[in-house]
């Protein structure tokens, strides 16, 4: 009897160990997925543990990303990179350090310069800017390094390449060159430059329309090819955009979202830990726990607090008879610019003791611009025209207020 009991206890312990191991494996895979979706790439020299974790699960991750979203997963001896191609390109998907279109032009041409270099090659910043200037002039574009703002744009482009690990500054700093053209920087080339730009499924000269560049792979012109393309477009948007409402889908994609929502929710829960809910306005996803990889709403920025306070104020107005505030059929609320400024002015008067100096001293018009930009970035609202802003029904899921006991 004791032997049987001992065997049962042993089996129970092995089962507990097995379950714990399975849970840990699932957690590690989710960490890999989050990193691949939120970082430009994972370098072995910077994060060996994560790099080898991706390598351990490479085949499963590669197959899942390709099957569901059409995202190729690259794995080399030094890096892991997910080639992420958005269906809809939004401004916040760019480099936040860049200020001008010119920054991206110089960034691209600096990569062109690096194509002729091999690993560990050394060269001067003056070599880069001179060849880039000549190449731009050949296509009718101008780069005048005597112009401070042109130097500043190139400095931002080179700093971004340095932060990505593509350029290694051996001696000097781009900021000094931006201040004075007489300064210089000695660089060394890393092996990662050839992986910065995404790889296209066919030669660029074969494309005739910009829209064609948004497809990550080639799709067969068959019903099966159309089905795969539709699935990829749906998953790509859910993986890369914070909110996608029913009205944001085209006529081809919406039926797929409605009929396959259970499968979509299961996939994203298993691979990312996302919780999905179907609301009248659309299929929404959220993280039940904070993650160190993704930036989540509400952010740490004070403007997120303003959005939450506005959400609470709008909820209260909708509950008051005679307030004149009403919601559209899908829960959206249409506001004029002046109406939001009025709400912010009242909130400022009521809560200024708890606001930062910047928000206390800003005008209601300045605060409104910050809120509009923040809500657009998070797909929580959009301009219909110059005077009307449509606030997403997603905002109604929150109700912000100050806890007076904690302030």
Task: Lay out the secondary structure.
Blueprint: H1 2-38, E1 42-43, H2 48-56, H3 58-69, E2 73-75, E3 79-82, H4 101-114, E4 122-124, H5 125-138, H6 148-163, E5 167-171, H7 174-179, E6 186-189, H8 223-240, H9 254-259, H10 261-272, E7 275-279, E8 282-286, H11 302-318, E9 333-336, H12 337-351, H13 357-361, H14 364-377, E10 381-383, E11 388-391
Antiparallel strand pairs: 1-3, 2-3, 4-6, 5-6, 7-8, 9-11, 10-11
Helix pairs in contact: 1-2, 3-8, 4-5, 4-6, 11-12, 11-14, 12-14
Organism: Paenibacillus oceani
Pfam families: DUF2398 (PF09661)
Protein name: TIGR02678 family protein
CATH architecture of the largest domain: Orthogonal Bundle
Q: Provide the succession of SSEs.
A: HEHHEEHEHHEHEHHHEEHEHHHEE
**Between the first and last Cα atoms, what is the distance in angstroms?**
63 Å
Overall body shape:
globular
Question: What is the CA-based Rg, rounded?
Answer: 26 Å
Main beta-sheet annotation = 3 strands, antiparallel
Structural class by secondary-structure content: mainly alpha
Task: Please write the CATH class name of the largest domain.
Answer: Mainly Alpha
Tell me the domain tally: 4
Overall mean pLDDT score? 89
The CATH topology of the largest domain is given as: Arc Repressor Mutant, subunit A
Q: What share of residues are in beta strands?
A: 5-15%
Query: Uncertain spans, ≥5 residues at pLDDT below 50?
Result: none
Report the helical percentage.
Answer: 40-55%
């Amino acid at each position: 009897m004791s032997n049987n009991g001992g065997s049962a206890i042993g089996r129970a312990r092995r089962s507990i160990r097995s379950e714990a191991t399975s849970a840990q494996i699932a957690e590690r895979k989710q960490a890999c997925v989050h990193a691949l979706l939120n970082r430009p790439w994972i370098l072995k020299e910077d994060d060996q543990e994560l790099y080898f974790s991706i390598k351990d699960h490479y085949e499963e991750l590669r197959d899942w990303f390709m099957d569901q979203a059409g995202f190729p997963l690259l794995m080399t001896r030094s890096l892991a990179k997910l080639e992420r191609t958005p269906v809809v390109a939004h401004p916040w998907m760019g480099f936040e350090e860049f200020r001008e279109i010119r920054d991206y032009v110089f960034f691209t041409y600096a990569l062109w310069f690096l194509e002729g270099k091999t690993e560990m090659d050394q060269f001067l910043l003056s070599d880069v800017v001179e060849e880039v200037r000549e190449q731009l002039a050949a296509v009718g574009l101008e780069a005048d390094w005597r112009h401070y703002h042109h130097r500043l744009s190139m400095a931002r482009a080179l700093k971004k390449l340095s932060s990505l690990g593509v350029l290694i500054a051996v001696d000097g700093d781009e900021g000094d060159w931006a201040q004075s053209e007489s300064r210089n920087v000695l660089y060394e080339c890393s092996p990662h430059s050839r992986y910065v730009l995404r790889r296209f499924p066919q030669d660029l000269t074969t494309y005739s329309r910009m829209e064609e560049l948004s497809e990550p792979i080639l799709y067969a012109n068959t019903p099966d090819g159309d089905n795969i393309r539709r699935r990829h477009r749906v998953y790509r948007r859910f993986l890369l955009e914070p909110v996608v409402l029913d009205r944001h889908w085209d006529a081809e994609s919406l039926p797929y979202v409605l009929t396959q929502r259970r499968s979509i929710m299961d996939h994203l829960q298993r691979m990312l830990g996302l919780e999905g809910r179907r609301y009248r306005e659309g299929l929404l996803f959220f993280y039940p726990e904070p993650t160190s990889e993704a930036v989540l709403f509400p952010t740490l920025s004070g403007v997120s607090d303003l959005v939450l306070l506005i959400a609470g104020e709008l909820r209260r107005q909708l509950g008051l008879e005679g307030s004149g505030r009403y919601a559209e059929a899908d829960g959206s609320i249409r506001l004029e610019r002046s109406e939001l400024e009025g709400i912010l002015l009242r909130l400022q008067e009521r809560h200024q003791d708890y606001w930062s100096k910047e928000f206390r001293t800003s005008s209601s018009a300045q605060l409104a611009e910050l809120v509009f930009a923040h809500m657009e970035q998070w797909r929580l609202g959009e301009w219909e025209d110059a005077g009307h802003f449509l606030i997403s029904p997603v905002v109604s899921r929150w109700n912000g207020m100050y806890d007076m006991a904690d302030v």
